[in-house]
TrEMBL record:
Pfam families: Glyco_hydro_46. InterPro entries: Glyco_hydro_46 (IPR000400), Glyco_hydro_46_N (IPR023099), Lysozyme-like_dom_sf (IPR023346). The keyword Signal applies. Keywords: Signal. Residues 1-27 form the signal peptide. This is Chitosanase.
């Protein structure tokens, strides 16, 4: 059959659409349920030395990082405002709950490492609240609103797959996204001085290496975060292996401990 110019053009268009569809289908995003659970496990390995993130709703302690109490599935802190937001949400969802009485104290200690008005029973009451399905749902809701969803959204905008989106998510978890020099936005801005993300025509490996380099720099600005194994012996290992979709099995080390997801 003779292929005319019009038919050839139509075939090329179909081929392009097919390639685009296949490429989109093949790209893994972190908000897929299975990958989201994997992301929670990896973060929990660093935050709680366990991949069992669902066992961390009742976790609470002061880790001496200047942020007061650190608690829950994502490390909500009494000194950084996210714990206050969480407890306020819990009040909205369940008025009269066991943590509501601490709201005035949480407002006072916000921005400090103080436990004033929280001790001696706050940790005990937090663990009591953590048995409540309403509080668990509130923790997951705030985790997604403040950390997970913004990371995935920016990752998709930058054209990076699941690994890159996870690198963003882990950075926001640790550094937040405020105005200080080590915040997520400024880590990304620092990386932009070295490379371009795929959405701007850059190479994904080159871009993620630049982002991880900037993240390592940010980690080393604080004594509490000077161990950068959560990047170098986890994220960077998968990047070197070209595992952009976080395909299992995954093996990594963080803070001296070894982990695996089969």
């Amino acid at each position: 059959m003779k292929i005319t110019g019009r038919i050839a053009a139509a075939l090329l268009t179909c081929a392009a659409l097919f390639t685009t569809t296949i490429g989109t289908a093949a790209a893994a995003n972190l908000d897929e349920p299975r990958l989201k659970d994997i992301a929670m496990q990896i973060v929990s390995s660093a935050e709680n030395s366990s991949t069992n993130w669902k066992a961390q709703f009742g976790y609470i302690e002061d880790i001496d990082d200047g942020r007061g109490y650190t608690a829950g599935i994502i490390g909500f802190c009494s000194g950084t405002g996210d714990m206050l937001d969480l407890v306020e949400l819990y009040k909205t969802k369940k008025p009269g709950n066991v943590l509501e009485k601490y709201l005035p104290a949480l407002r006072r200690v916000n921005g400090t490492e103080s436990h004033s008005g929280l001790d001696p029973n706050y940790t005990k009451d937090w663990k009591t609240a953590a048995k409540d399905s309403v509080f668990k749902a509130a923790q997951e809701s705030e985790r997604d609103r403040v950390y997970f969803n913004p990371a995935v959204k920016q990752g998709k905008a930058d054209g990076v797959r699941a690994l890159g989106q996870f690198a963003y998510y882990d950075a926001i978890v640790v550094h937040g996204d405020g105005g200080d020099k080590t915040s997520f936005s400024n880590i990304r801005k620092r990386a932009l001085g070295k490379a371009k993300p795929p959405s701007q025509g850059g190479n994904e490996t080159t871009w993620l290496n630049a982002f991880m380099d900037a993240r390592v720099w940010a980690m080393k600005q604080e004594a509490a975060h000077e161990d950068v194994s959560r990047i170098e012996t986890a994220q960077r290992v998968w990047l070197k292996a070209g595992n952009f979709d976080l395909k299992t099995p995954l093996r990594w080390k963080v803070y001296g401990d070894s982990f695996e997801i089969k």
